[in-house]
Amino acid sequence: MSEHHKESFITKYVFTMDHKMIAKQFLITGMFMAVVGMLMSAIFRVQLANPGESSILYSLLPGAWLNDAGGLNPDKYLALVTMHGTILVFWVLTAGLSGTFANFLIPLQIGARDMASGFLNMLSYWFFFIATVVLLSSLFVETGPASGGWTIYPPLSALPQAIPGSGTGMTLWLISITLFVVGSLLGGLNYIVTILNLRTIGMTMQRLPLTIWALLITAILGVLSFPVLLSCGLLLIFDRSFGTSFYLSDIIINGEALHNEGGSPILFEHLFWFLGHPEVYIILLPALGIVSEVIAVNSRKPIFGYKAMVGALLLIAFLSFIVWGHHMFMTGMNPFLGSVFTFTTLLIAIPSAVKVFNYLATLWRGNIRFTPAMLFAIGTVSAFITGGLTGIILGDSALDINVHDTYFVVGHFHIVMGLSAIYGMFAGVYHWFPKMYGRMMNKNLGYIHFWGTFICAYGVFFPMHFLGLAGLPRRYYSNSAFPMFDGLSDINELITFFALAGAIVQVFFLFNFFYSIFKGTKSSQNPWKSNTLEWTTPVERIHGNWPGELPVVTRWAYDYSKPGAEEDFILQTEPLKEGEIEH
Amino acid sequence: MDIALKNTVKKQLLWVALVSISMFFASMLSAFIVEKGDVDNWKNFSLPTYFVLSTGIIILSSLLLFFIKPALKKGKSIFGLVFIVLILGLLFSFFQIKGWEQLTNQGIYLTGIGSNVAGSFLYILTLTHLLHLVGGLVGLCISTIKSKQNLYSINNYLGLELTSIYWHFLTILWIILFTFLKFY
Amino acid sequence: MTNILIVVVVILLLATLVQIVRVSELLSDIKNKDVNEVTDKDNNTQGILFLIVGFGFLIFVVWQMVTWNHLLLPPASSVHGAQIDTLMKISMGLILIVFFVLSPILFYFLYKYRGKKSNKAYFFSHNNKLEVVWTIVPTIILTSLIIFGLKTWDKSMNVDVSESTTIIEVYAQQFNWNARYSGQDNTLGKANFRLVKGSNILGVDMLDASSADDKMSREVHLVIDKPVLLKFRSQDVIHSAFLPHFRVQMNCVPGMTTQFGFTPTKTTAQMKETEGDDFEYILLCNKICGASHYNMQMKFIVETQEEYDVWLDSQENLESKLLTQK
């Protein structure tokens, strides 16, 4: 069944209810925001390499953000850091990653015509879009955007007197994030209900590709944890604008004693991190799901340990709800509570390790085809090993005493999120581009993009561990105020060099992406010789995905190089041969 | 998608949304518990009597909704039933606001000098519940209009079903909030 | 003008890229090949690249460790800090071993199993024994690490306040620190933010008997090998008291008092011998608190009892400082 209603530009590209187009809306918006966030990081890295000096990059900023000498104002440095974090964590790695791939892949890989509710799906994008507009508008208000870190702890984020960005900019941030969360929840509802109800005949849960398992579990995480951010933000809105005292007490700011009594900023931290920690797994799990798919297809082998991989995803998701306190070891919490959180945090390392071992076992004795997508999937594995291991240091409360809020943390979370998850996103784009646009991305540009990014990214973030072990705190406008950090300027310059180089390398990707949409070589129906259902749809893409009947599934998604088969892949719709046993 | 599947799917979408809304309130109740344990100047006060009234009213409204299915099965008009539930819903809202009035007369304020975190929490919890209830009232309005036009039958009353599920959720949520605030 | 030039250059670069891509596609059309097909040659190149870049990365890591080792913090100058350092060495050693085992395996596999059309992959979908092994081994290792860590955490956080513990308040505000010694009674006078006025920056309640002998200071002196309990308050937003050399960190939260106790084991003079004459123990702010978050510092000096006594005596106590300055 394909619909033959007449489509205008508006109904096809703007107010569309087709999951494939909505996915691309999320992707393009996410990519745009990624560029914005990346430019911000280029700017503040330049400040860190040459503190106080002016730079040509600063001409991208509103004039009021600079001082008379052309250098960046300290509070605007904090604004950049705040917006960079907000944009990358929420806009790029949550909406850009889940929003794109959940929307695109779920109906296609389970054999459905579209999502359970195309209307809710369309709404989820439009809430996201409006949230984006509101957030970007905060860059242009007089007092500047939110500047209290993406974690927006009160009282700093509640009091405009404490930092200018906590005025209008912070209000806009809160409005934006509320819209963002509503949009995310609308999406999550669809993903869950679609996967549970609209699988085609034969698509049992055990035959689902790991990508879908990951997206399902991610959606459940979101549905359970994002509402807590809403309540957390609601109480903050009341404290900021209506004079309540949920988070505020005993404050004198700018010489004025505030009336608030009885509140606790630590309450904010508990509520925030109750979302905040599952959030990083909301970011990571889709990337790992994509990587499972890309590695299996390109190793021409089943993903090793399918059941263990699903189990690991479930265990990670469950544990992610009981580790949030590891962000709060230094708040003066009861030491016993700190011990509990150390215990649960180090436990979460176990299913993570299992996943890494399973990836390595998938590669072992494979016949590896290095498409650009595969390169990035491998990049994810490498970064997950590197970044995951430093998590063991940070999760140990006693060790956290001296590395909390230093560059050690910055290095860790960038490697797991900025490398692992972003690489997963790149892998997904390169891998499913032919399905999205019916054309191939240029392979050689993809190779250049990967190697440039892989080298530069490790060059940026690995040295940060040393800065942290040298005691350098994060969110510092400059390290020139403390003689003890004088020896670290060389490292800072090296990091900035790699950061700028890495930013420039992304041009290859952006160019490749947009050029290939219009001028890429036309793709075949199944260019990667993959088993999953999306590759049985026509190259031109139609509403309802399959012309005629929905596919019927007879096997799991990983019959690659199965002994006795003619080719090294077998589509999930291929009936079992005489005498063939299903895996 | 056939009708049966469509109905199942729409109901499941609502159920998942209810899980999210529950987490929203659960986190605020946790915040309440944490803050109460932490803070020295937690004010204790009794709940306004209007809230007892409103509790009774919302329970009654939910009970009435159970008569819809039997009535539809017998082919009877449900307009009266749905309309009464809508009125009760509006009455609930009115009593909530009267309850807040009672609180301010007692000196319990939401914000500003003289307010106390205990009072603020009470207002926020009841306010957000009421805001979610407005959604239910919208559903009831639409259902009232549609039932007047006899658009519902036993085989096709999805909109009303969804509204009812949501309304029952709001009732249970209110009972939990009320009990919690009364006894904790 | 420069901006216009940059825009022009960028556009020209992009145009060049377009042409390069077009040319390569045309060339492969002529050769009748698919420009985007991944060939055995590609796999060979990429596999070798992973070996080279991968091991290059590992060498880079070692280079960083060697080159920047001298920049890291010196060994801890406190009792609990020494235990933290031991735990850190063991944990780091462990993760470095895992890193230097797993990463080469990854890069080597990518090289060894680089694809050839003539090869076939080995259909190996699961092995329960392996799963059990590589679940249990990390569990054992991590559990041991946890137990060790908890012991160290307990030592660091659970303060045994004895008679010889000096109690000092450290007060944070945008953008400086103030210290308050508790005087001979070793008890800090009560304080309330509503009493902050003029030179009574900390809001000390002068009606409390314990307040009279308190002393305020803009630097903190400590006695070597004598336990101290720092009590933290904040005036405005969350700050964090970070004393990296002592392995001490604690958030300063308005509306709460937090604390951290430790015993310094090296004097400033001793540190100057090993770390250079410019060395100072320093307190920095480690929680984003506003524009000058990067420049909130206070000096800490560890000295002998005699030096300390001399210094402390020279500080004015609050009774005379505040009550005489209306």
What is the subunit organization of this protein? heterotrimer
Q: Which superfamily, in CATH terms, is the homologous superfamily of chain B?
A: Cytochrome c oxidase, subunit III, four-helix bundle
Radius of gyration of chain B: 19 Å
Largest interface: A-C, 125 and 121 residues
**Looking at CATH, which topology of chain A would you report?**
Cytochrome C Oxidase, Chain A
Relevant CATH superfamily of chain A: Cytochrome c oxidase-like, subunit I domain
The amount of helix of chain B comes to over 70%
How far apart the termini of chain B lie comes to 48 Å
Instruction: Estimate nothing, just give the exact number of structural domains of chain A.
Output: 1
The biggest beta sheet of chain B is recorded as: none
SSE arrangement of chain A, N to C: HHHHHHEEHHHHHHHHH
Would you report the number of β strands of chain A? 2
What percentage of amino acids of chain B are in beta strands?
Answer: under 5%
How would a crystallographer describe the biggest sheet of chain A? 2 strands, antiparallel
Question: What would you say this structure looks like, in words?
Answer:
The complex is a heterotrimer of chains A (583), B (184) and C (326). Chain A is mainly α. Chain A has helices spanning 9-14, 19-49, 74-110, 118-137, 168-197, 210-242, 265-299, 306-319, 335-363, 372-395, 397-403, 407-437, 443-461, 464-469, 489-519; strands at 252-253, 256-257. In chain A, strands 1-2 form a two-stranded antiparallel sheet. In chain A, helix 2 runs parallel beside helix 4 (118-137). Chain A is globular and about 85 Å long. In chain A, 68% of the residues are buried. Chain B has 184 residues and is mainly α. The longest helix of chain C is centred in the first third of the chain and has 34 residues, at 79-112. With 326 residues, chain C is of the alpha+beta class. Chains in contact: A-B, A-C. Chains A and C meet through helix 3, strand 1, helix 7, helix 8 and helix 9 of A and helix 1, helix 2, helix 3, helix 4 and strand 7 of C.
